[in-house]
Amino acid sequence: MRILLVCNQGMSTSVLVKNMYKYAGEDDIIEAKPVTEYKDVAANYDVILIGPQIRYQLQEVKGVAEKCGIQAAVIDAMAYGMLDGKKVLEQARSLA
After folding, report:
1. Within its chain, how far is the Cα of 28 from the centroid?
2. Catalytic: 7?
């Protein structure tokens, strides 16, 4: 599964990516991009999750995702805050 995490700057989310890889399969690809850069690469992923701090941009991200034939959602705020890679990975898989 190819998962794109979109956040404000990509810094805190990069730690979450690292934690997600602890539970990911060897074929999984998980990357983080800032909200200013995701549009050009969105079609390369199976699902997009956005950070809770930019939830106000969900409709725009969903529009881009829809054009790519994929789902987009806001990362569960509790899982994000705790950098719970397992829970966020489960959330992503539930959308694909």
Report:
1. 13
2. yes
Helix (H, G, I), strand (E, B) or coil at 4: strand
In this prediction the pTM is 0.94
> For all residues of the chain together, what is the average pLDDT?
95
C-alpha 79/C-alpha 65 separation (Å) is: 22
> Could you give the CA distance from residue 77 to residue 36 in angstroms, rounded to a whole number?
21
Q: How far apart, in Å, are the Cα atoms of 85 and each of 12, 15, 20, 76?
A: 12, 9, 4, 11
The token pair at 48 is: 């997009």
- Are 48 and 70 within 8 A, CB to CB? yes
Selected catalytic residue, list 4, 6, 7, 48: 7
> Which amino acid, 88?
V
